[in-house]
Amino acid sequence: MALLRTWPVVLLPIALLYACAGTLLPTRSAVASPDIGWIDRQFRICGGNDCPAPTRKTLALVDVLRARQEAHSTLPETPPAAISPATEADAPVALIRFPFARSRPTAEGRQRLKRLTKIARQYQRIELTGRTDGVGGKAPNDRLARQRADYVRSWLLERGVESEITVRAEGRCCYLDPALTEAARASNRRVEVRLGGRRDAKPNHMRAP
Questions:
Q1: Parallel/antiparallel/unpaired status of strands 164-169 and 123-130
Q2: Spatial separation of the C-alpha atoms in residues 152 and 154, rounded to whole Å
Q3: For residue 123, which of 191, 200, 193 has the smallest C-alpha distance?
């Protein structure tokens, strides 16, 4: 009788071991890439022979990762924002043209500078932006653009213009005409002049209703 009572105790662990052995976990080939393994007491992404044998926990995490990747891939791509053209308020009041690779303006550019000098005295702020064409490297064109803007600044100061003058410059940028022709390149070699704060403008509290 004692022997019959001990048989269930012995057979129960054997039956449990046999049942567990019959439940096979998926092999690593069935796991989505990248794999997730329990490494150094934490879950880490691994691959190939670096991954330990998969467990139920790591397989569950891989399924979550794969679901997130699939959801991300189905999201519609946002088209890039359209670049709005410059408004009339941003347009320069004068364009001073320059010859190729020169920091002094053309004959037409000097005539425009003379007319600009008379107008510039009426404004408190002047913004000068030097530009170049697309010939040559970025660094030398940046220097040339700065030299052109500095030339216009010096011209105005030497003729008694006391306005606040801001100088900006960037070569190989912001072309008026992107065509690869000499006429287009000539139009891009310029200094843009913008004026602000008219001196004879009345303050808001002095204007008529």
A1: parallel
A2: 5
A3: 200
- Interatomic CA distance for residues 60 and 49, integer angstroms: 20
Angle in degrees, 0-180, between the axes of helices 107-120 and 138-158, rounded to the nearest 10:
50
pLDDT digits 0-9 by tens, 144-189: 999 999 999 999 999 999 999 999 998 988 999 999 999 999 999 9
* 140 burial level (CB within 10 Å; 0-12, 13-18, 19+): middle
Please tell us whether the domain made up of 94-200 is placed in CATH 3.30.1490.20.
Answer: no
Domain parsing of the chain, residue ranges: 30-63, 94-200
Nearest Cα to Cα of residue 55 among 38, 33, 34: 38
What are the structure tokens assigned to 150, written together? 């500095």
Rounded Cα–Cα distance for residues 151 and 144 (Å): 11
pTM for this entry: 0.55
